[in-house]
Specification:
This is Related to triacylglycerol lipase. The chain is of the alpha/beta class. About 35% of the residues lie in helices and about 20% in strands.
């Protein structure tokens, strides 16, 4: 990330030289192409796990080009009580991937916990830079909340997302149209602050950390998402600057120890938690205070739960992923779905 201050003292995203813009464009499209091909292969009938497919998909008139995926628990019957709702936003650096990438999480979360899950799509950069995704997700969330065909309890609504999706969940939650409608937000390893440099982010990691998987791609993804001249302290971009009273009453932020984004996320969690008079309870790495929960997953990298692995690592990652999601649902059931 590169920033400069304008005459008003604002930190703004600066314009890159032509050849650097060309390099970032090329790098972004190469990554998008490779990742897109990988997921297209996984979607082929031979590889596709049909047990995790959504109940159905739905397009809302407010955003007719975006298809959302609805997961109704398989055990649900029409005469059952209305379900809690979890709105999921997928990751991908704001520039790639799709809601189908979260099918495994959404299906398991819905069926294990008897929760209605809606996986939301959004327009991708660089064709649709900030704030296009924020505006689109806001529109779709409002459409979902007004959708009488979905069997959910409007008093039990949470939003969450992974990586870029976690940022969008925190950004959208601040919108005036959603005030009082979202009981909680869950942000898995989100980017939260573009005013800190890449070097500053890397400096927060443990000294013996392996190379960070985001280090090479982050500058290109930032360029693709953030238009030149953007105020980097805009709270719907750098969500660390969000006013506490604009966010849902309950907040759960999860960071990964070996992720360059973790330091900023922890600072955000601490700043939010310090608003109020409640005492902090928990441990150094997992604690709660004033409606905010922070958890640092030790020894794991960004997106560890969605990264292919084999052997002993696969067993470890699966166990930690399942425990992470179980902890999230327990928190939701105790703090939001009540």
């Amino acid at each position: 990330m590169a920033a400069q201050q304008n005459s008003s003292g604002l930190k703004i995203y600066d314009q890159k030289p032509f050849f650097q813009r060309f390099e970032y464009l090329l790098r972004t499209h190469i990554i998008k192409t490779v990742i897109g091909l990988y997921f297209r292969i996984l979607s082929l009938p031979f590889f596709r796990d049909t047990s995790i497919l959504p109940t159905y998909t739905k397009v809302y008139p407010c955003r007719p080009t975006l298809t959302n995926r609805i997961f109704i628990p398989k055990s649900y019957k029409p005469d059952d009580a209305l379900l809690p709702l979890f709105l999921d936003i997928h990751g991908g650096g704001f520039c790639m991937m799709s809601p189908s990438c979260d099918d495994k999480f959404c299906s398991e979360f819905a069926n294990t916990n008897k929760v209605l899950v809606v996986s939301i799509d959004y327009p991708k950069s660089p064709a649709h830079p900030y704030p296009a995704a924020v505006k689109a997700v806001t529109d779709i969330v409002n459409a979902i909340l007004a959708d009488k065909s979905l069997p959910f309890d409007k008093k039990k609504v949470a939003i969450g997302g992974f990586s870029a999706g976690g940022n969008l969940a925190l950004a959208v939650s601040q919108d005036d149209s959603l005030q009082g409608k979202l009981g909680g937000v869950v942000a898995y390893y989100p980017p939260t602050n573009w005013t800190t440099t890449l070097e500053e982010k890397l400096a927060t990691k443990p000294k013996d950390s392996p190379p960070d998987r985001l280090e090479a791609s982050a500058p290109a993804f930032d360029w693709a998402y953030i238009p030149p001249g953007t105020d980097l302290e805009d709270p719907q971009l750098s969500v660390a600057f969000a006013p506490r009273d604009k966010l849902p009453p309950k907040i759960y932020i999860i960071g990964c120890e070996l992720d360059l984004l973790c330091g900023d996320s922890e600072v955000m969690a601490r700043n939010l938690a310090n608003i109020g008079h409640g005492q902090r309870v928990g441990t150094e790495h997992v604690w709660e205070q004033n409606g905010v929960k922070w958890e640092k997953i030790l020894g794991e990298e960004h997106g560890f739960d969605a990264t292919p692995a084999t052997g002993a690592k696969q067993i470890r990652v699966t166990e930690r992923r399942d425990q992470m999601h179980a902890d999230v649902f327990q928190w939701l059931s105790e703090e939001v779905y009540i």
